[in-house]
Amino acid sequence: MLSTDPCPCGTGESYGRCCKPLHEGQRQAETAQELMRSRYSAYAVGDLDYVWRTWHPRTRPSSLTPDTETQWVGLEVVDTVAGGRDDDTGEVEFLAHYRAGRRSGTLHERSRFAVRARRWFYLDGEVD
After folding, report:
1. Under a CB-based contact definition with an 8 Å cutoff, are residues 78 and 95 in contact?
2. How large a percentage of the chain has pLDDT more than 90?
3. CB under 8 Å, gap of 24 or more: what pairs does 83-88 form?
4. 12 lies in a domain?
5. What is the pLDDT of residue 30?
């Protein structure tokens, strides 16, 4: 993905101004929603290392397996509870749209996030 392409997370910014700096470690997510959006973008561009690094050490798997069949095609944030710059925890509910082969679908999840060592991490999520 080019830096000038629209960011997959749906903010309307270019990838180079939005999620790419987080993926490359140039800065950290300031809110739970920003982390969730950047993790979605990481799945969309195939950056599983970023997904793993931003997963809370207590709940993350030992490794992640690439899914080359799934193409993430759109993100809608439904609800955000806390997760701001001054919070220690937050929740973000979202719809992540995908295509897998000839099928299309939507992942509906409410994700939980927590701050550890002054950084936001993904804890876990409930999938509908």
Report:
1. yes
2. 98
3. 83/31, 83/32, 83/33, 83/113, 83/120, 84/31, 84/32, 85/30, 85/31, 87/32, 87/115, 88/114, 88/115
4. no
5. 98
Cβ atoms of 75 and 54 within 8 Å: the answer is no
- Neighbouring residues of 16: CB distance < 8 A, sequence distance ≥ 6: 2, 3, 4
Element (H, E) at 120: strand 119-127
Residue 39 counted as domain residue: yes
User: Using 50, 70 and 90 to split pLDDT, how confident is the model at 105?
Assistant: very high
How far apart are the C-alpha atoms of 109 and 3, rounded to whole Å? 28
Residue 53 sits in a domain whose CATH number is 3.10.450.50
87 is in which domain, residue-wise?
A: 20-127
Number of independent structural domains in the chain: 1
